[in-house]
Specification:
The chain has 19 helices and 15 strands. The chain is of the alpha/beta class. It is found in: Cytoplasm.
Amino acid sequence: MAEHALKSPFLREAEARGYIFQCTDLASLDAAMCAGPVTGYIGFDPTADSLHVGNALAIMMLRLMQRHGHRPIALMGGGTAKIGDPSFRDEARALMSPERLAANLVGIESSLRQFLDFESSNSGAMLVNNADWLDRLSYIELLQDVGVHFSISRMLSFESVKQRLEREQGLTFLEFNYSILQSYDFRELNRRHGAVLQMGGSDQWGNIVAGIDLVRRTDARQVFGLTTPLVTTSSGAKMGKSAKGATWVNAAKLPVFEYWQFWRNTEDDDVGRFLRFFTDLPVEECTRLGALQGAEINEAKKILATEATAICHGREAAEAAAETARQAFETGTLTADLPSREIPAALLNEGIPAFRLFAEAGLVASNGEARRLIRGGGARLNDRPISDENRLIGTGDLVEGALKLSSGKKHHLLLRPRT
């Protein structure tokens, strides 16, 4: 919460939505944003070939900057990814091959273009890769230019570093350089593009402050840092993870319907907060929807799912996913838009026990979990309950060439035979 009344529209809305966790000099940043457009950035290391829901709050901050007339920079870590950010990790990241890194960079760029407008001339987002300058650095040059401004004792005081040093894995010298390179990025973006604000998750606070200090020491310029809160669910789970793994924004890695369903499955107590975080709906409307009780909160969840999916995949795809859900959950219709998987046709020709089918389909993690699901009445085949876990399911159960399997009320898929 700000200690003074914020005046800039960006910071006012960011505060109202709960985006602000820490800021190095909120009053001065507020004044700078009132004076004119500000350029700010967030870094994304290409550790995979797609962003996921865990990156969503950072992306929403960049989108909010753009909506209020400021210029966001999405910095892809093509250089820093060759080291790996050690912040709050149990062990070092495995180093990527050049081919894997190049493929990941293409995927991250594609993900960012789903959310941000890189075409507008004024407040259009910029896409930058820190390999453009980090790959050209000589080690001696870096030590002389930047290394003299870093205190080892101060770096050891960073909470992320202390936690790693207390673990068996320890911290390699390679990873220890990450903070220096991230600081170098801030100075380089300030010099090249006038970036005066670095944003990131709360785990990046130490690295952001180090960059601010480097810019002040070497260039005598005032720059700012702002972090967002760590997002967890009411039950304490880390945002963006599910039983099936990361919730990817790339439709090739996760179907749009499953992305929509991720948001639809939000816990009741998180609905209002997630509406403020992950949609563009007015804050007052988010608060109203989040306060609904009983069956009405499910309608709010559908709005959350559709609005969040529209930001990522477009309005048409989001509404199609909502309609697929309505048909599958409310009318029991077999719809081709449900997530689909294949199973060897031979298994259906011979007949496969129901518990094995659910495990093979990936709706449960094991045969034992499948048996418990069926015994508990939570398994359905073509919208009809399965009571016998050993019942043989075969080609005679196919409807329009597929089996519709349901685990509880929220998880459905079409299983098709593969010849």
